[in-house]
Design goal:
alpha/beta; two-stranded antiparallel ribbon; 16% strand; globular
């Protein structure tokens, strides 16, 4: 069933667990994620990235998720991830499928970040759409693995002011994770997270969840993280499933299930692991 980010994260914060959020494309990922969340009775955030929405993607991907969400009894959020312009926010709001959006202008000055995030909230909130912002900056590799940006830790003294002035429903913070595949393992700053959680009136989000050691993720959830973004781990799983499918073909005209089945199973295994890790099983 469709719901908003604000609603699912309110329960997560009250009951000290985190909701898994998966960037997804195509039916294989959508089906694997939703069916696993249903089996585990976990709320789930289905996220879309702008590069995957280009062309007809704006209709295909969020449209597919919306079409099947109500066949599931678990709460499903359709979320635009990492929008970097108000034009993208406006398009997501107007297309009628998203129940949540993220505006990420964390690389700009505090004042400009507030201004743009507030403008996004003013567009989204009248339509019942939740808004996530980011304070501090989670760096790492871009999707094409061609650019590397440094992370900047979130300052606790800025949190309350940012939340109040921007009107966000959730706040992504930087405590030591990065996007993409880690070249060396992170060491999350849990002391900083405790300060951020104490200062924030809204639930906190952690980006760059793929590859972060499980014990550090559990500790982050214990101290205030209510949503964990995951993408690279699912892409790695899909690649592993694709290799398995390619190596097992015995016929010239393989059945679709023989091609897509191993990919779906590999993604589903990652989703189930993340749900158990975050404590979101049986929370729906």
């Amino acid at each position: 069933m469709l719901t908003t980010l604000k609603d699912v994260l309110a329960d997560a914060r009250a009951n000290h667990y985190a909701v898994p959020a998966f960037d997804c494309v195509e039916d294989v990922m959508v089906r694997a994620i939703l069916e696993t969340a249903e089996a585990k009775r976990s709320p789930v955030v289905m996220m879309c990235l702008e590069p995957d929405l280009q062309g007809n993607g704006w209709a295909y991907i969020p449209g597919l998720i919306k079409a099947v969400a109500d066949f599931h009894k678990v709460p499903v959020v359709i979320h635009l991830d990492h929008a970097d312009s108000l034009e993208l926010i406006a398009r997501a709001v107007d297309c009628g499928t998203f129940t949540s959006v993220m505006i990420d202008r964390s690389s700009l000055s505090f004042e400009e970040n507030v201004r743009l995030t507030k403008a996004a909230a003013e567009m989204a909130h009248p339509r019942g759409i939740s808004v996530e912002g980011e304070l501090g900056h989670v760096g790492g590799l871009d999707l094409e693995a061609t650019g590397l940006r440094e992370s900047v830790l979130t300052e606790p003294g800025e949190v309350a002011r940012f939340v109040e002035q921007s009107g966000v429903d959730a706040l992504a913070v930087s405590i030591g994770t990065s996007h993409g595949v880690y070249q060396s393992l992170p060491n999350l700053n849990i002391g900083r997270l405790k300060e951020l959680n104490a200062a924030s009136s809204v639930p906190l989000v952690l980006h760059g969840g793929s590859g972060t050691p499980d014990d550090q993720i559990r500790n982050a959830v214990r101290h205030g993280i209510c949503k964990l973004n995951i993408y690279a781990d699912c892409r790695i799983a899909m690649g592993r499933g694709l290799k398995q499918a390619a190596g097992s073909q015995r016929r010239q005209d393989p059945l679709p299930q023989e091609i897509f089945g191993p990919m779906k199973e590999a993604v589903a295994a990652v989703v189930a692991e993340k749900i158990d890790l975050l404590g979101s099983a049986n929370r729906a």
